[in-house]
Design goal:
The chain is of the alpha/beta class. The protein has helices at about 20-30, 50-65, 80-85, 95-115, 135-140, 150-160; strands at about 10-15, 35-40, 70-75, 85-95, 120. The relative contact order is 0.20. Its EC number is 2.7.7.3.
Length: about 160
Amino acid sequence: MTSRTTITAVYPGTFDPITLGHEDLMRRAAGMFERLVLAVAVGHHKKTLFTLDERLAMAQEVAVPLGNVEVIAFDGLLRDFVRAHDGRVVVRGLRTGGDFEYEFQMAGMNRRLMPEVETIFLTPGEKHQYTSSTFVREIATLGGEVAEFVSPGVLARLNDKFKGS
Protein backbone atom coordinates (compact mmCIF):
# COMPACT_ATOMS: atom_id res chain seq x y z
CA MET A 1 0.00 0.00 0.00
CA THR A 2 1.46 3.32 -0.95
CA SER A 3 0.29 6.66 0.34
CA ARG A 4 1.72 10.03 1.25
CA THR A 5 0.75 9.72 4.88
CA THR A 6 1.05 6.91 7.35
CA ILE A 7 -2.32 5.42 8.15
CA THR A 8 -2.61 4.12 11.68
CA ALA A 9 -5.24 1.51 12.43
CA VAL A 10 -6.26 0.51 15.95
CA TYR A 11 -7.40 -3.03 16.72
CA PRO A 12 -8.93 -2.92 20.21
CA GLY A 13 -9.91 -5.83 22.42
CA THR A 14 -9.45 -7.50 25.75
CA PHE A 15 -7.44 -10.38 24.21
CA ASP A 16 -7.99 -12.67 27.21
CA PRO A 17 -6.20 -14.62 25.83
CA ILE A 18 -5.16 -13.62 22.34
CA THR A 19 -6.23 -16.43 19.99
CA LEU A 20 -5.15 -17.55 16.54
CA GLY A 21 -8.29 -15.81 15.28
CA HIS A 22 -7.05 -12.53 16.74
CA GLU A 23 -3.61 -13.21 15.25
CA ASP A 24 -5.17 -13.84 11.84
CA LEU A 25 -6.95 -10.47 11.92
CA MET A 26 -3.88 -8.71 13.30
CA ARG A 27 -1.65 -10.13 10.54
CA ARG A 28 -4.13 -9.14 7.83
CA ALA A 29 -4.69 -5.64 9.23
CA ALA A 30 -0.91 -5.16 9.56
CA GLY A 31 -0.68 -5.88 5.84
CA MET A 32 -3.30 -3.25 5.03
CA PHE A 33 -1.98 -0.35 7.10
CA GLU A 34 1.44 1.15 7.65
CA ARG A 35 0.98 1.09 11.43
CA LEU A 36 -1.30 -1.08 13.53
CA VAL A 37 -1.85 -0.49 17.23
CA LEU A 38 -3.15 -3.50 19.08
CA ALA A 39 -5.03 -1.80 21.92
CA VAL A 40 -5.30 -4.16 24.87
CA ALA A 41 -8.21 -3.02 27.02
CA VAL A 42 -7.84 -2.97 30.77
CA GLY A 43 -11.17 -4.77 30.77
CA HIS A 44 -12.72 -3.14 33.80
CA HIS A 45 -16.15 -4.37 32.64
CA LYS A 46 -14.98 -7.99 32.48
CA LYS A 47 -13.38 -10.34 34.95
CA THR A 48 -10.28 -11.39 33.03
CA LEU A 49 -8.36 -14.64 33.45
CA PHE A 50 -5.04 -12.97 32.67
CA THR A 51 -3.74 -9.75 34.16
CA LEU A 52 -3.22 -6.78 31.90
CA ASP A 53 0.56 -7.33 32.00
CA GLU A 54 0.12 -10.98 31.01
CA ARG A 55 -2.20 -10.06 28.13
CA LEU A 56 0.22 -7.40 26.94
CA ALA A 57 3.12 -9.86 27.05
CA MET A 58 1.20 -12.49 25.05
CA ALA A 59 0.13 -9.94 22.45
CA GLN A 60 3.64 -8.51 22.13
CA GLU A 61 5.04 -12.00 21.65
CA VAL A 62 2.76 -12.74 18.70
CA ALA A 63 3.14 -9.24 17.21
CA VAL A 64 6.95 -9.22 17.03
CA PRO A 65 7.25 -10.95 13.63
CA LEU A 66 4.96 -8.39 11.99
CA GLY A 67 7.20 -5.38 12.55
CA ASN A 68 4.58 -2.64 12.18
CA VAL A 69 2.41 -3.60 15.17
CA GLU A 70 2.61 -1.81 18.50
CA VAL A 71 0.91 -3.33 21.54
CA ILE A 72 -0.38 -0.73 23.97
CA ALA A 73 -2.71 -0.93 26.98
CA PHE A 74 -5.73 1.32 27.14
CA ASP A 75 -8.39 2.30 29.62
CA GLY A 76 -11.29 4.64 29.06
CA LEU A 77 -13.00 5.61 25.84
CA LEU A 78 -11.72 4.08 22.63
CA ARG A 79 -12.22 7.51 21.05
CA ASP A 80 -9.62 9.07 23.33
CA PHE A 81 -7.13 6.26 22.70
CA VAL A 82 -7.58 6.37 18.91
CA ARG A 83 -7.09 10.13 18.83
CA ALA A 84 -4.07 10.00 21.15
CA HIS A 85 -2.39 7.54 18.75
CA ASP A 86 -3.39 9.34 15.55
CA GLY A 87 -5.65 6.50 14.48
CA ARG A 88 -7.66 6.86 11.28
CA VAL A 89 -9.21 3.38 11.27
CA VAL A 90 -10.64 1.03 13.89
CA VAL A 91 -10.39 -2.66 13.03
CA ARG A 92 -13.06 -5.00 14.37
CA GLY A 93 -13.50 -8.72 13.86
CA LEU A 94 -16.75 -10.43 12.92
CA ARG A 95 -17.26 -14.16 13.37
CA THR A 96 -21.04 -14.53 13.35
CA GLY A 97 -24.23 -12.64 12.63
CA GLY A 98 -24.56 -12.01 16.36
CA ASP A 99 -21.20 -10.24 16.33
CA PHE A 100 -22.42 -8.08 13.45
CA GLU A 101 -25.35 -6.58 15.37
CA TYR A 102 -23.23 -5.59 18.34
CA GLU A 103 -20.30 -4.35 16.22
CA PHE A 104 -22.62 -2.42 13.87
CA GLN A 105 -24.09 -0.55 16.84
CA MET A 106 -20.64 0.12 18.28
CA ALA A 107 -19.37 1.37 14.90
CA GLY A 108 -22.33 3.75 14.70
CA MET A 109 -21.63 5.13 18.15
CA ASN A 110 -17.92 5.45 17.38
CA ARG A 111 -18.79 7.38 14.20
CA ARG A 112 -20.76 9.86 16.34
CA LEU A 113 -17.87 10.18 18.81
CA MET A 114 -15.10 10.35 16.20
CA PRO A 115 -16.48 11.07 12.71
CA GLU A 116 -12.97 11.38 11.28
CA VAL A 117 -12.27 7.68 11.97
CA GLU A 118 -13.54 4.78 9.89
CA THR A 119 -14.39 1.34 11.22
CA ILE A 120 -13.60 -1.68 9.11
CA PHE A 121 -14.75 -5.22 9.75
CA LEU A 122 -12.61 -8.25 9.03
CA THR A 123 -13.72 -11.85 9.21
CA PRO A 124 -11.26 -14.50 10.36
CA GLY A 125 -10.22 -17.30 8.07
CA GLU A 126 -12.52 -20.31 7.98
CA LYS A 127 -10.33 -22.23 10.41
CA HIS A 128 -10.85 -19.56 13.10
CA GLN A 129 -14.45 -18.49 12.52
CA TYR A 130 -15.70 -19.97 15.78
CA THR A 131 -12.63 -19.35 17.91
CA SER A 132 -13.27 -16.99 20.79
CA SER A 133 -11.34 -16.15 23.92
CA THR A 134 -14.41 -17.08 25.95
CA PHE A 135 -14.51 -20.59 24.46
CA VAL A 136 -10.76 -21.01 24.86
CA ARG A 137 -10.92 -20.01 28.53
CA GLU A 138 -13.87 -22.31 29.20
CA ILE A 139 -12.30 -25.31 27.47
CA ALA A 140 -8.97 -24.74 29.25
CA THR A 141 -10.72 -24.28 32.61
CA LEU A 142 -12.41 -27.66 32.18
CA GLY A 143 -9.14 -29.39 31.25
CA GLY A 144 -9.73 -29.55 27.50
CA GLU A 145 -7.15 -29.17 24.76
CA VAL A 146 -6.86 -25.70 23.19
CA ALA A 147 -3.60 -26.01 21.21
CA GLU A 148 -5.41 -25.56 17.89
CA PHE A 149 -6.81 -22.19 18.99
CA VAL A 150 -3.78 -20.38 20.45
CA SER A 151 -0.07 -19.91 19.80
CA PRO A 152 2.42 -22.11 21.71
CA GLY A 153 3.34 -19.24 24.06
CA VAL A 154 -0.29 -18.60 24.95
CA LEU A 155 -0.86 -22.33 25.40
CA ALA A 156 2.04 -22.49 27.86
CA ARG A 157 0.54 -19.63 29.88
CA LEU A 158 -2.88 -21.29 29.90
CA ASN A 159 -1.32 -24.55 31.05
CA ASP A 160 0.51 -22.68 33.84
CA LYS A 161 -2.78 -21.07 34.95
CA PHE A 162 -4.53 -24.40 35.24
CA LYS A 163 -1.67 -26.53 36.52
CA GLY A 164 -3.01 -28.60 39.37
CA SER A 165 -6.63 -27.62 38.72
